Amino acid sequence: MNTVLVTGATGYVGGRLAPLLLERGHAVRAMARSLNKIQARSWSRHEHCALVQADMFDQDSLRSALTGCDTAFYLVHSMSGHGKHSDFAAKDREAATNFLHAAEAAGVTRIIYLGGLGEDGPGLSEHLRSRAEVGRILQSGAVQTTWLRAAVILGSGSASFEIVRHLVDRLPVMITPRWVDTLCQPIAISDVLGYLVGCLETPATAGLVLDIGGPDRLTYRELFRLYAEEAGLRPRLILPVPVLTPALSAHWINLITPVPRALAAPLIEGLRNEVVCTDERILELVPLVRTPIRKALREALHRVQQADVATCCFDAGTACAPEWAACHDAPYAGATVLESGHSVTLDCTPSQAWKPVTHIGGDTGWYYGDTLWKVRGFLDKLVGGPGLRRGRRHPEELRPGDALDFWRVVDVDKEQRLLLVAEMRLPGEALLEFTLRPEKTGTRLFMRARFLPRGLGGLVYWWLMYPFHMLLFKNMLRGVARAAQAPILSGPAPVPPEGRS
Asked: What is the DSSP letter of 205?
């Protein structure tokens, strides 16, 4: 049995490809930066699935992950990168080079890469140019690389679908840039997966550059119209104007949709480029009954309505707590970790108290001060953060790596601990933790916020927010008690920082 490496195994495409490969009888080595995220997937426990932790910027970890693999799927990109590698084109270039060298050293025979459609030229967007550069890098080495080029991917949870869905759902009148009349050839996520597996199982595709798309070619204006029809909405009035730049469009999409500006900006810039298949060899090499766009939209809508979204574009993000979370003082950072917390003792079992904790956020809200949370989310959106609109993957289940409004789930220890890391724009780094402790008379529930400030601005932010924390936390704990239908035995009351008396 050949072993196949899937990079980005917790991402939008990789998280769906890995279980499909397992169903088809392939041995899968699932790679991600966080093992917690992979372990939370049900398919990770399959007898032919092995988990490996590796980073695209660490060649040693890549070489270890690739050793013993025959084929590797390259399904990562860096459009939402921040920090050390904030330039996504440079980050993609470095990652592709590292991966190619590691694959050559490990003796990998094939790479299958999913890139973007778009013809080279001075008008090609930076995002599409970067995706093309990655393809050229991967094909420049000794490993035979199959390069699949796709345009708009439509499926529940895809970035393109989320943009279309929220724009059309929320705006009966849309003022759009000229790109609304650009021609594109969308493809259903099910077809993307079919072509990826088909290329693996068709040796004749090795080393080729192949365009993949659905059977329909249409403009974005027509795409909006079809979505409105499938969603049962009235036709939207679309008014193209010449003054909307990609930057303004990205900011507007950031405000209206759950897609953050860091991800929306490169996507929007690419919409000015016509993206249609010019090479249809894939139709003969990998025969597939392609999904019409109406069916793709209908299936995506159905899965969203049923809360049956297997993977989401918001899955991208590390499920790792920062180093300072393990201690309360961070002298190496030149700062002290600031903390505020409350606890309440409930007349119930840990299981009874745990349920409302794991339902927090999304449509449920935060059990108190939802208006304040919405204002904070709106302010976050104004400065390019995720805000509250991305909600949560499932109304009842949480797993490491899930997006939860403007938080990311780091750890879920059933009936004991829920740890969230903030992804909102902050002058520092923040954690929010819920812990449960059984007691003789019931269950004690703790809620703590920890913050590592960045400079004077971070200190000012913390102390300005401190009174709101005091108000919110004690009332949120009361709200959890009501949701759990559990009488309060004592509290809510402030607690000292953990580990201190």
From this structure: G
